[in-house]
Design brief:
This protein is mostly helical. The chain has 27 helices and seven strands. α11 packs antiparallel against α13.
């Protein structure tokens, strides 16, 4: 009985390695070839197996990223065969590979395959049989790759191989429609204006489409409060229910339509692959900072929630890049801050809603990049830059099921916060305002006023009174609680704020102390010292920026 040849199949999920593994296994079995194919998910998985031969499935549409894996495989394995999948898609763009020259440069047997069209399967099996039977020669070209030594050298080697073997199209006539769109979206001159325009449209639609249901919910809450007062009368319990729970929770609940609309657009951008294009556009900027474009992906996720964004940075290989990216995430304006922005933008900046919102997000991103630029010069994060490549997934049509699932996941989290943190925060704020005078009309003598007035000397240079200081304090567990506190203390914020103090307040909310869950996650991922540093730094940065905006505004107005 012939000895079973164990073959490990390596490649990205999009290369078609799973389908090819199944097709090869079935064909080898029908031909009684003693091959045992095992799909390997990553290089770490490759370490844990002993194979007679490794088959690398190369994604022809993402050649450079696929081939970057080749030197690592060569470092681990003596016998290798390369199968090029999706080669027809490469030919559609009027590009092709010189396989003869590639074989001379790399020295690895190669074959074009297509499981869908049943092409190249038998030829690949023949190549695998031949390679498995041949002895390993130390003069084989693959040994030259092992001398390169590091990631940057590997990338340079692969780039050089493709320069000599990939024949580029002379024009774009044979590019698909999506490829032409992709070329425009990732253009270094057009990409950024298009990205800003898309974000502007998203914010404009969020406000415009969400305005009507928001007004209906707000009107319903006001009507419920009036009805409840007429039915329940006076007393501490009616006051807690109406002034605390209904008004506090209702103020946050009113922004639910806007949250749903914004998450809808974000989900569409994620599912189509446009988020990855944004990261690709930022790749050059991130390299100047000393990070890779992949660091921008957790930053983008931070616009939804900082906690999963910090956890997503675990995928970064370098520990210094990983820690620095995690510390940059709190600069991104998470969705918990969104109700605060919407409340002030609706009230004070009705004619420029989208621009004001866009400016807040831009401030967070710019300060995050500036923070990374400074930290990269310190002994903790300084390291040589690496020339890495950011892979772009294919454009795809979003699935309604997937989009609805993403929206529900985020809306459910928003509703859970309303039913827990916001509810309890509203009750606590009401109690501190109601006691010890047992009157909602005598706020100046309440416990809440005592706390706020103790903070007022620090906040007054920013244009904030004691009520604003208290609102910021209640935002520590969850930023949505600021809205409920504003509703309880002010009712109508136009009576206590001006456009200047409103914008200053929003900038402070953007930059100060991330929520408790974010701090706990940072402590777990990067240590207590860096988590404490981020808390102190965020408070100081928020104060300094708010001070600069307010004092400059006073001079200009």
């Amino acid at each position: 009985m012939s000895k079973t040849i164990k073959i490990g199949v390596v490649g990205s999920p999009k290369s078609g390695k799973t389908a090819l593994t199944g097709a090869l296994s079935a064909r080898a079995k029908s031909l009684a070839i003693p091959f045992e194919f095992t799909e390997v998910h990553d290089l770490d998985d490759l370490h844990g197996h002993v194979f007679d031969l490794v088959l690398q499935v190369v994604d022809s549409v993402n050649l450079e990223n696929s081939l970057l894996l080749t030197p690592h495989i060569i470092d681990e394995q003596e016998k290798i065969v390369m199968a090029f999948g999706r080669y027809d898609a490469l030919l559609e763009t009027d590009h092709e590979l010189d396989f003869e020259k590639m074989h001379r440069l790399i020295g690895v047997p190669q074959c074009q395959v297509s499981v869908r069209q049943n092409k190249g399967i038998d030829e690949l099996l023949q190549i695998l049989q031949t390679t498995a039977a041949q002895p390993v020669s130390t003069a084989h070209p693959i040994y030259h790759i092992r001398d390169l030594g590091d990631e940057a050298a590997y990338a340079a080697y692969v780039h050089g191989v493709l320069n000599q073997t990939l024949r580029h199209a002379k024009n774009d006539q044979h590019q698909t429609r999506l490829e032409k769109i992709d070329k425009v979206l990732t253009n270094k001159w057009l990409g950024f204006p298009i990205m800003l325009l898309i974000l502007y449209v998203v914010f404009e639609c969020t406000f415009t489409l969400g305005a009507y249901p928001q007004e209906w919910i707000a009107g319903g809450i006001d009507a419920l409060c009036e009805w409840s007062r007429g039915v329940m009368g006076e007393g501490w319990f009616p006051s807690m229910l109406i002034d605390g729970i209904i008004q506090g929770v209702g103020a946050v609940l009113a922004f639910l339509p806007n949250i749903i609309i914004l998450f809808f657009f974000i989900s569409i951008m994620e599912d189509t692959g446009y988020m990855s294009r944004e990261a690709y556009l930022m790749d050059g900027i991130m390299h100047h900072v000393g990070l890779h474009g992949r660091s921008f992906v957790p930053m983008l996720m931070g616009f939804g929630c900082n906690v999963p964004a910090i956890m997503a940075a675990r995928d970064l290989k370098d520990p210094r890049d990983r820690a620095l990216t995690m510390l940059m995430v709190p600069f991104m304006s998470c969705s918990a801050r969104l109700p605060v922005y919407m409340l002030f933008v609706d009230t004070f900046f009705a004619k420029h809603k989208a621009l004001v919102m866009l400016s807040l997000y831009a401030i967070g991103v710019c300060l995050g990049i500036l923070f990374a630029l400074i930290m990269k010069r310190t002994k903790w994060f300084k390291k040589p830059d690496e020339d890495l490549v950011n892979e772009l997934p294919e454009f795809r049509l979003p699935s309604w099921r997937s989009t609805c699932a993403h929206i529900w996941e985020r809306v459910a989290d928003y509703l859970q916060k309303i039913a827990t943190v916001i509810l309890w925060a509203s009750i606590i704020i009401w109690a501190l305002e109601y006691f010890p005078t047992q009157s909602s009309g005598d706020v100046e003598r309440s416990y809440l006023a005592m706390i706020g007035k103790a903070l007022e000397p620090v906040m007054s240079p920013l244009g904030f009174d004691w009520k604003m200081a208290v609102c910021l304090l209640t935002g520590l567990p969850a930023k949505e609680a600021i809205v409920s506190t504003l509703a309880i203390l002010y009712g109508d914020i136009s009576t206590g704020f001006t456009p200047l103090t409103a914008y200053t307040f929003m900038v402070f909310v953007l930059l100060y102390f991330p929520c408790v869950a974010t701090v706990v996650t940072l402590r777990r991922e990067v240590g207590r010292g860096w988590a404490c540093y981020m808390v102190v730094q965020s408070l100081l940065l928020a104060w300094v920026c708010a001070f600069a905006i307010y004092q400059t505004g006073l001079l200009l107005i």
